[in-house]
Design goal:
The complex is a heterodimer of chains A (240) and B (125).
Chain A lengths: L5 H30 L6 H15 L4 H21 L1 H6 L1 H32 L4 H7 L6 H10 L4 H25 L5 H23 L1 H33 L1
Helix pairs in contact in A: 1-2, 1-3, 5-6, 5-9, 5-10, 7-8, 7-10, 8-9, 9-10
Chain B lengths: L1 H32 L6 H15 L4 H13 L6 H5 L5 H6 L1 H30 L1
The chains are: A mainly alpha (240), B mainly alpha (125).
Membrane topology (chain A): Multi-pass membrane protein
Subcellular location (chain A): Membrane
InterPro entries (chain A): CidB/LrgB
Amino acid sequence: MMSFPMYSISPMKGLLYCSLTVAVYLIAWKLQNRFKHSLLNPVLISILVLAGILLAGNIPYSDYQQGGDWLSNLLGLAVVSLGVPLYQQMREIHRELPGVILVVFVSSLFALVSTVVLAVMAGADGQVAISLAPKSVTTPIAVMIVDNLNGVPSLAAIAVILTGLMGAIFGLPLLSLLKITDPKARGIAMGTACHALGTARIVQNSLQEGAYSALALVLSASISALLAPWLVPWVLSWIS
Amino acid sequence: MKIAFVCRRMAAWLSSVIILMACLWTGDLVSVWIGHALPGSIIGMLLLATLLGSGLIRLSWVEVGAGFLVRWMSLLFVPIGVGVVDQLDLLANSLGALLLTSILGTVIIMAIAGWLFQWLERTQR
C-alpha cells in the first residue's frame, strides 16, 4: 500500500471521520424517534457501529481520533451551555441549595464506597477498584482522581462512559420504577449517578430536570474530587 | 425583511459563540489557577449562569448557540466511547467488575439521591 505523509492526509481524514460520526449519530437518532425503544439509544448505537467499522476495516483509533477530537473539543462548550438551564432555574435552586448539597454529598460518598466494594466483590484487584471508583463523575475529573491514586485512567474513562450510557438508556424508566417522581429529585439523581451523559439525556426530557441534573453534576464532581483521595484507599484497606 | 431576519439570526449565533468561548477560556484559566480542582468547562458553566443571573449578559445573546449545543450534547460523547477499541484487553479483563459497578452501582446511587431528596422535600413541607 502507498503511504502518504501525515500532514497532507490528516485534514481529509479528520473531515471524513467527523462527518461519518455525525451521519451515524443522525441515523441512530432517527431510528430512536421512529421506534421509541430505549435500547436504541443513539450514543450506544453510534459507538457500536463506529467501533465495528474501525475493527472491521482495521483502522487504528488514532486515525479516527483526528475527526473525533473535533467533536470532543466541542464538549467543553456544551458543558458551558448547561449554564443556561441552570440560570433559568436559579431562583428556585437558590432556595433549595443546602438540601441539594447535603443529598449530593451523601450520595457521592455512597457512590465511591459502593463502587469500590462492588468491584472487589466482582473479583477486581486494588488498582482496578481504584480506577472504577469515580465512575459517576464527569470524565476529566474521574481521570484526574484515578491518575492521582495510581489507577488506570483509560479504564476509568471506560467506566465513566458505561455508567453514563446506563443512565442515558435506562435512567428515565429506572427513576419511574424507583417511584422518584419529583422533577428536582429526578434531576439530582441523574446528575449524581450519571454525570454529563445522563444530564444530556434528561435535559431532552425536561429543562427543569436538566437544570437540577447539571447542578448535581457540578456538586458531585467537586465533592468526589475532595473525598476520593483519602476515602478510596481507606475503604480498600478496610475490606481487603 | 428576510435579510433583516437572517442578519439577526447570524448576530445571535455570533454572540452565542463568542460568549460561550469566553466563558470556557476564563474557566480554563481559573482551572489552571486553582490547580485543576475543577475542569474549566464546569467553572465556565457556573460563570455563564452567574453572568446571566446578574444581568450582565442577556439570555437572547446566548440562547441560540447554547440551546443547539445542549440539544446535541450526547453526540459529542460518541468519539470518547469509540476509544474503547483501543482498550479491548483491559475491557475483557475487568468486564465483571465494570458491569456490576455500572449496573448495580447506578441503581443504588440513583435510589439514594432521589429518595433522600424526595424525603427532604416532604419533611420540609
